[in-house]
Amino acid sequence: MIAYLVRRILLIFPTLFAIMLVNFIIIQFAPGGPIEQIIAEIQGTAVGAGARVTGGSGTETSGGSSQAAGQGDSSYRGAQGLDPEFIAELEKQFGFDKPLHERFMIMLGNYAVFDFGESYFRDRTVYDLVLDKMPVSISLGLWSFLLAYSISIPLGIRKAVKDGQPFDVWTSTVVVIGYAIPAYLFAVLLIVLFAGGSYWQIFPLRGLVSEDYDELSTMGQIADYFWHICLPVAALTIGAFANLTMLTKNSFLDQINMQYVQTARAKGLTERRVLYGHVFRNAMLIIIAGFPSAFIAMLFTGTFLIEVLFSLDGLGRLGFESVVNRDYPVVFGTLYAFTLLGLVMTIIRDITYAFVDPRIDFERRDV
User: Fold this and answer.
1) Within this chain, do residues 259 and 137 fall inside the same structural domain, yes or no?
2) What is the model's pTM?
3) Domain stops at, among 121, 154, 177
């Protein structure tokens, strides 16, 4: 197992390099880099997603410390009438006066020591921005993850035991409906019904807490927090709940039909002892193996539309605004950090897999 882990850890480096290289190359073909954003802001034609660009010779930038990516051509569209020296100064401030390969290598060198530089347009470091937005995404992802698994695993087991019976049929209808409705569409439905859209105004529509949160008692703050996250968490849970329920059911059905289960029953063991003493451990392997990836997915992906609909300022919204505004240090910094986190969580998944079932030997399989 140790040799396998060493190989997987070493594999992280070329994987990260390839991902960053591919995205760096792709971004070269994206029109409207940060310098064009500033030019558009100066000329009053900018269209952004939340971050306001500051134009002029005193533009706040990272001084090229992130060396992310962008157009290296100085003939920017819309730059007619502007001083070429001003354009050259902007290129130097953003670090675009260097060749592409040099910018890429400087970026990787900085990221290797977790120096992600500063946002082009927010006058803050990428690290501080991520830390500032992290609580919102953690709140949504963590509670959605716990709620989805708390409901889906017992329900999936029950459906497997009652396979083909009325309970399985009507719960399958609910699961199919949940699977068919996208999270953002379900969020709109919840807003219309319960957030003052057209019917009842039971839950708030904006923010993670109320404006008077600091003035509330401890219990009041806890209640206020859960009052605000109720609808967005419910919207995020619906899709994961459906998938996980069917995965649990099918996993248990596969094990229930195995020969060792028939043998255990023939020995006179009760159904409960057979289910939780024999079937549960084997059936849960595929569920446990998916814990890390599911947790990361709940935490950092698929939340943008939910954050926008409920006016939550989290990582999903930050990533979208950064892409639209061509804030490359934020785009590449978060890409690097979350890719690294995902690769590490994959290794943790394998360790968990081997811990749950000691029969699994990764040494005998290829990485």
Assistant:
1) yes
2) 0.70
3) 121
